[in-house]
Amino acid sequence: MELKRAEQIADSLEQLVFQGEYEDGERLDEIKLAEQFCVSRTPIREALQRLVMSGMAEQIPRRGVFIRQPGPVELLEMFETMAELEAACGRFAAARMSDDDLERLVEANLRCRDAVEKEDTAGYYHENEVFHQEIYRGATNSHLQGEALRLQNRLKPYRRVQLRFRGRMAQSLAEHDGIIDALKSGDSELAAKLLRGHVTVQGEKFQQLMAGLKN
Amino acid sequence: MELKRAEQIADSLEQLVFQGEYEDGERLDEIKLAEQFCVSRTPIREALQRLVMSGMAEQIPRRGVFIRQPGPVELLEMFETMAELEAACGRFAAARMSDDDLERLVEANLRCRDAVEKEDTAGYYHENEVFHQEIYRGATNSHLQGEALRLQNRLKPYRRVQLRFRGRMAQSLAEHDGIIDALKSGDSELAAKLLRGHVTVQGEKFQQLMAGLKN
DNA sequence: GTTTAAGATATTGTATACAAGAAAATTGAC
DNA sequence: GTCAATTTTCTTGTATACAATATCTTAAAC
C-alpha cells in the first residue's frame, strides 16, 4: 500500500472497510494512514471526508472520524430502501426500456444462469450485479440510476454474504425470470412488486444474512 | 461574509448556490472564496468537496470544481426520484405510523391550511415541508428518511418556485387530505400512489416550474 | 495572417508548519 | 490509596509553502 492520490486513497479505504479491516467505532488515525499510504495528512483527510459523506464513517469535531459498521437494524433499513429503489427502477424500466436494453438484460441473466450451473458464486455475484444495473439503466433516469448504484455499492459486502447459502443463487435466478417477463410485457406494477420482493430481506433471508455476518 | 469554519462554509456555499449566485458551469475559485470567507484555501477545499459530493458541483481533476445547475431533464429526474422516495415512505408509513405520528401529521396539515387561508406562501412552503417530513419520519426507516430529507433539501429552491402559481397551494392542500386518509386507514398502496402523484411534476406543473426558473 | 511551439503564468494538489483543543499523565491534597 | 487539578502530550483543524500541471501569452515560421 503506497503512493496513491486522494481519490484512489478513498477507494482503497472503502475497500478496506468493506473487507472488515476495521472494527465498528474504530478511529481512523490520520497520521498512521498517512504513513501507510506514504502521503501526507492532506490527501488522507480528503479521503476520510469522502468516507464520512458516504455514510461509512462518522466525524466528531476535534475528535476524529470513526468507522460505522451498520448494525442489524440499519442493515435492514438499507435493504428496505434498496428494495424500494429497485422497485422504482423497475416501474420506470417496464415502460421505458428499449429492445436493446431488454436484450442486454436477458444476456446478463444468461450469464447469471451460467454461473449458477457452474456453481460459481463469485461469478453469479458479479453477473447478478450487472443484471440489476441493467434495470437501473433501463429506468432512463440518470439521477435514480445514480442513487441505486450508490446504495448497491454500499450493500455489496452484505449481498456477498447472502449468496453463500445453499439454494439462494437458484432462487434468485428464478426470480429474475419473472422480473424479465414483467419488464418485457411492460407491466410496471408487477415489475415493481417483483423487484421489491426480490431485494427485500426478511424471514429466512434475514437469518442467513445475520448468520453470515458472524464470521 | 467572514470568519467561518469548514462546515459552516459548506453550508454558506450551498445557500449561495441555491440563491442562484453562481451560473451553471461557473468555476469556484478557491483563492477568491478563501478571501471572501477570510480563511485559507484548506477549509474552502473541504467545503468544495462537500458540494461535489452532494451533486451540486462537478470536480474535474487539475481543473477545478464547477457548479452544476440542473437542467430541465435532470430536474425532472430528481422530482421523479423524489416522488418514488415519497411513495416508498408513504407505503411504510401507512403500516407503521403510530397515533402520535398521525397526530403530528394532522397538526402539520392544519398549519398548512392556515397558511393557505392567509395566502401566506412562505408559510405554506415551510409547513408543507414539515408535513412531508412527518411522513418520512413515519416510515420508521432512518436510512430512507435520510435519503428523502437529502433530496427534499436539494429540491428546495425549485419547489419554492412552483408555489408561486395561482391555485397551486390549494390543490396541494387538497391532496394532503387524501394522503392523510390513506395513511390513517393503513392503505399502503393508496398512500404510495397518492404521494407519487402529489410530488410528480408533469404537464401543467412542469410548464409552471420551467416558467418560474426563467426569472 | 494563421498556426504552432516554447515560455510564462496561474491554479490545483500535496507537504509541512503552526494553532487550538481534547485526551492522558503527573503531581498534590486529603 | 483515591480523587482532583494542573501540566503535558497528542490529535485535529487551519495556514502557508512547494510541486505539478493546465492554461494563456508570445514569438517565430510558413
UniProtKB/TrEMBL annotation, chains A, B:
Organism superkingdom: Bacteria
Any one Pfam family match given in the protein's UniProt record, by short name: GntR
Gene Ontology molecular-function annotations: DNA binding; DNA-binding transcription factor activity
This protein's UniProt keywords: DNA-binding, Transcription, Transcription regulation
Residue intervals of the HTH gntR-type domain: 3-70
Entry-linked InterPro entries: GntR_C (IPR011711), TF_FadR/GntR_C (IPR008920), Tscrpt_reg_HTH_GntR (IPR000524), WH-like_DNA-bd_sf (IPR036388), WH_DNA-bd_sf (IPR036390)
Gene3D superfamilies referenced in this protein's UniProt entry, alphabetically: GntR ligand-binding domain-like, Winged helix-like DNA-binding domain superfamily/Winged helix DNA-binding domain
Protein name as it appears in the record: Carbon starvation induced regulator
Species in which this protein is naturally found: Ruegeria atlantica
Recorded name of the encoding gene: csiR_2
